[in-house]
Design brief:
The complex is a heterodimer of chains A (about 110) and B (about 110). Chain A is mainly beta and about 110 residues long. Chain A has no helices and 11 strands. Chain B contains no helices and 11 strands.
Amino acid sequence: DQQVKQNSPSLSVQEGRISILNCDYTNSMFDYFLWYKKYPAEGPTFLISISSIKDKNEDGRFTVFLNKSAKHLSLHIVPSQPGDSAVYFCAASASTNAGKSTFGDGTTLTVKP
Amino acid sequence: EPEVTQTPSHQVTQMGQEVILRCVPISNHLYFYWYRQILGQKVEFLVSFYNNEISEKSEIFDDQFSVERPDGSNFTLKIRSTKLEDSAMYFCASRKAGTPYEQYFGPGTRLTVT
């Protein structure tokens, strides 16, 4: 039972354009959602998060949108830069489980110059 | 900027041997986690640790696994009798109290069981 799903294993965009990474979840208990970025041979790095009481959170070039009724969130990167090329993991947490994060499979983003 | 550190970066061991993976979380953090990532697969939760005890563990974290915070700075993961399928990257993470779940990850230890 995969509670957090990232259905696109890879995404390729041109530098300067928008990157949209999607994530779906099934567990209604999740109330906090996070995006992590991971480069090869490194640990995941926290990027941006959103609480379930919000539907949007913005930080510079990164915006996360949450649609609770659809159990769907997305990460928008505008404008995309070659340095954004990495694996992006969506993660979800519930207040009741000590902050444990359930991760999606990841989406490999490639930004072409 | 404070960071989570892990040692060793790569550990090779024979099947059936015990291994201890070490982590030094960020000093004012109170919640500690171990995750693993088998090559080509997703990051999987193993265990969370708070107030000197396990707060949650996954089905992966069976009796062969244990965690300890022996001295207030280190956080260790022990695998008593390694199996081939334990080969993976193991990530330690920590977060401070009150932070809404943003975890800081170490660089990982690559465990290879032969």
